[in-house]
Amino acid sequence: MDTPREAHILERVAERISASLQHVFSASDLLQFLDKLRAEGILPKSPSSHKLKQLVIATGIVHEIELTATYQFESKRYHRGPFSPYELALSLKPNSYLSHGTAAYLHNLTDHESHTIYVNKEQSAKDSSSELTQERINRAFSAKQRTSGFHFHHGQTTITLLNGKHSGRLGVMAITGSRGEPLEVTDLERTLIDIAVRPAYAGGVQHVLTAYLRSRSKVSVDRIAKLLRRLDYVYPYHQAIGFYLESTGHASADLDVLRKPKLKFDFFLAHGVKHTRFDERWRIHFPADFLRPEEAAS
């Protein structure tokens, strides 16, 4: 440390970082944090935010988080005090949000807290208009579903980065984590849609069914239908979602809103399933060993 004055300034910075609800910082986050303190009159005009950032790191006010990735990722992350893996996940990409199996856990749709955290960074908008045929569906769902290869590792935690469909962050909400940290996560209905579309990111179709069963008393079918219209998927995922909802006790009449897009094709509950049964009401092929609640009870 260069001077007693700088030592005093760093003490102020340390106090403010310790009091902050944000526990994980990128280098740019630290600069923004310091700039905000200066704008509020808490810090003097000098030394510069860049020099202060270097001192904050060098003097151990914040510590680097050990992080490895399956692809080139040179940006470092820092923390002061305990932090949650969800915070770390959200710090990796701007405007990202927790989704799929992670969102299901945070909404109490499963009791299993996985060591894998799913965080979604949306793709840019693309033209998805194309003609759908039965042959195209059969070909696409005959193979295993592709999964993300973008993984970050911190201790026992794996963070999987998803490049999801552009939606303008549709159905994303703010919640408070167990450490008081602010988190952004898909809401209940968006989560149920996401895990039906990508069951591999929620432990598979049987775990998805459990999530639908636990959501039964609080989910809005009309909101699911509204979100589906806005998401505008090429494939008829409304059939899979209708199948899950009806399998978990929702009245057939309540599901008419999901039948309105019509059931034009035979569809599949999951990719790459060799042995299936067929539900004629939703025209859906589902795994032969898939157990609906009434079957599991018998």
Can you characterise this structure?
The model has no long low-confidence stretch (mean pLDDT 93). A hairpin with a 5-residue loop joins strand 9 (172-176) and strand 10. The protein has helices spanning 4-19, 27-39, 49-58, 85-91, 100-106, 134-142, 188-197, 205-214, 221-231, 237-247, 256-259, 293-297, and strands at 24-26, 63-64, 68-69, 77-79, 97-98, 116-120, 151-154, 157-162, 172-176, 182-186, 267-268, 276-279, 284-287. The protein is α+β, with helices and mostly antiparallel strands and 298 residues long. It has 2 domains: 4-66; 85-297, no CATH class.
In short:
The protein is an alpha+beta fold and 298 residues long. It has twelve helices and 13 strands. It has helices spanning 4-19, 27-39, 49-58, 85-91, 100-106, 134-142, 188-197, 205-214, 221-231, 237-247, 256-259, 293-297, and strands at residues 24-26, 63-64, 68-69, 77-79, 97-98, 116-120, 151-154, 157-162, 172-176, 182-186, 267-268, 276-279, 284-287.
**Count of helical regions:** 12
Secondary-structure element pattern, one letter each: HEHHEEEHEHEHEEEEHHHHHEEEH
Terminal-residue CA separation: 71 Å
Structural class: alpha+beta
What's the alpha carbon Rg, rounded to whole Å? 23 Å
Instruction: Report the principal-axis shape.
Output: elongated
Our estimate of the beta-strand percent is 15-25%
Strand order, biggest sheet? 3-7-8-6-5
- Count of discrete structural domains: 2
**In which range does the helix fraction lie?**
25-40%
Low-confidence runs of at least 5 consecutive residues: none
Average pLDDT works out at 93
Total beta-strand segments: 13
The profile of the biggest β sheet is:
5 strands, mixed
